[in-house]
Predict the 3D structure of the following.
Amino acid sequence: MKLAAEVDALKAQLTAERAKNAELETRVDEDPLTGLLNRRGFLKLLERALAYARRYRANAALLFLDLDGFKAVNDKHGHAAGDWVLGRVGRMIAGAVRASDVAGRVGGDEFTVILWNLDEAQARAKARALEVLIAGSDFSQGGRHYALGLSAGFTMLEDSDTSEAVLARADQAMYARKRERKR
């Protein structure tokens, strides 16, 4: 009887430890400010997405998003204000894409999104819609207003892509869009 009770206690402890490990594994891939995937988690999913798109000939796009005006928020109002903005933008991006799409924060004020089952025109439209969403939103907190914009570049996933190549192409598209928007 005593041995059976000890075995049951060990099983319960093992179950609890496995649950704790699963939670930690999830946290390792999650950005705490936004609730989106962090760079590590996003890159893992991007690798899977590339393999899936290659195998099943699925259409997908990678969006690379950069907040315009974010540096001024941190410089003038401090990092707490910047963290608030990042959290809000992350929730807005997550709310503006489908549950099957994947969003992440891959840098300070840089976000990425994998969009599934769409063509280039639809990817462009989603990129522009996200720009409009951020530009048209009120970022006010504690009597302060933060003027923000978003530059969204995109590229379609290609059969020969590596994660580094597609990220670099999307990043270049974002910088091209940023230059275009400044004209």
About this structure: DSSP finds six helices and six strands in the chain. Strands lie at 60-68, 102-105, 110-116, 140-141, 144-145, 149-156. The radius of gyration is 20 Å. The chain has a mean pLDDT of 92.
